[in-house]
Amino acid sequence: MADLAPVLDQSVLDELRESVGDDDAFIADLVATYIAEGRDHLAAMEAAAAAGDAAAIVRPAHTLKSSSAALGALRLAAIAREIEMAGRAGAAADLPARVADARAAWDATLAEMAAAGLTK
Amino acid sequence: MSDVALIVDDSAVNRQLLARHLTTIGIDAREVGDGRAALEALHEPGANIGIVLLDVLMPDMDGYETLAAIKADDDLRHLPVIMISGVDELDSVVRCIQLGATDYLPKPFNPTILAARVRASLADKRMRDLEVAHAAEQAALLQTIERQKEELSRFLSPQVAALVSSPEGEQMLAGHRREATAVFCDLRGFTAFSDSAEPEEVLGMLREYHSRMGELIVRYEGTLEHFAGDGMMVFFNDPVPQPDHVERAVRMAVAMRDMFAGLAARWAKLGFELGFGVGIACGYATLGRIGFEGRYDYGMVGTAVILASRLSSAAAADQILLNPRAHAAVEELFETEPVGALQLKGFARAVEAVNVLAIKTTEAATAKPS
Predict the structure, then answer these.
(1) Tens digit of pLDDT for each residue in A15-38?
(2) Which of B58, B88, B107 is opposite residue A70, by nearest beta carbon?
(3) ipTM (interface predicted TM)
(4) Contacts across the A-B interface (CB distance below 8 Å)
(5) Which phi and psi angles does B366 have, rounded to 5°?
(6) Is the dihedral of CA B90, B94, B99, B102 positive or negative?
(7) Closest-CA residue in chain A for B106?
(8) Same domain, B107 and B245
(9) Does A11 touch chain B if contact means CB atoms closer than 8 Å?
(10) Number of structural domains found in chain B
């Protein structure tokens, strides 16, 4: 199901841009923050998955879900949401495969952001 | 001084976005990444935080704990807290609102909803702050008035102090005409005394004289218009009406004369010969505020005032001189002797004054019809 969501939803980005008065410099800053922060969260999720620590994965997955959704990275947001729920459910065994999906979605997101000229 | 919004979210993207939206609607924002940092910021002196936007899921100290800490703190409990929440977190939002959160803000952020909720919460808070400030101002004002009344009563006669703070005060101060009794008294031999004595002696003696006489003025409820060196002017029947105003004036004068006898005996041992004379006149006068902006007296103006002053000047030591009108009012109460027709400065006709010798004994006084 997560695979069905668009990697980068242009309409979310359009709305976001409009809400900040078409301030492209601000959007570029925000994307830079997202990438720096997301990288850390993804690394934390990978570490938690490798350690089989379901509880430790909840918060980084939650935060990555929320910031991804804010920037239109809906596929990653959906995967992160499933990981967060799995983490809350204590389903440690499912985590490594799901985090690998998250990593793939992350790479795809960055590629599309770069293609859309959003990255510096 | 506008309120600052404190954004508490572990997501830098969320913080950055919220801060931006808030700035757009004219609200300054501060950002922190967890609850502990939020509480530190809230306790900073002068932080001026008027609203908290609080994420639920955060490391270290989460939204629930932070909210509970804010609500448990007397200084912070009235601060509006808006929870930041994803659509799938509505259960936690309900819990936060039960814990005292004001509202919630769904993610992803909609700037219009954000502006509406933040403004509504800030408006509530300002209203509350205003109420609190107003109550404090009222209390401070009352305190000031009480203090001023107290201060005033030290400088003014208690009657005038009470009048100043009464609802009818302004009207009374504006000036009115009524019958009143004016009392002037001063010391015989004072000028010579103040020339020969040391200034410290003069002041010390005056202080004692004023304080003892002042007690009597208060006891007989006279309105002290002024002290001037050894002289003083007191009037009766205003601002508080006193049907027995002449009697009060004469009784006070007699008490003053007795009091003065004690003082004079002591001063005589120090070599100072001083006498005490009083003039009392009853008549119509204008009473009210006299003076100019910044320095007003509550005073009495009229022929009776001048007459009392002239009678006081004409009085020998130990004499209490009454004008005929005052005499007529109290002749059954006091033993008097005529002092003849006095030619007084400013008065075309001679004044038939009497000197008060003593208060009639109770027996003698009650024997006469009143």
Answers:
(1) 889 888 899 999 999 999 999 999
(2) B107
(3) 0.89
(4) 53
(5) -75, -20
(6) positive
(7) A66
(8) no
(9) no
(10) 2
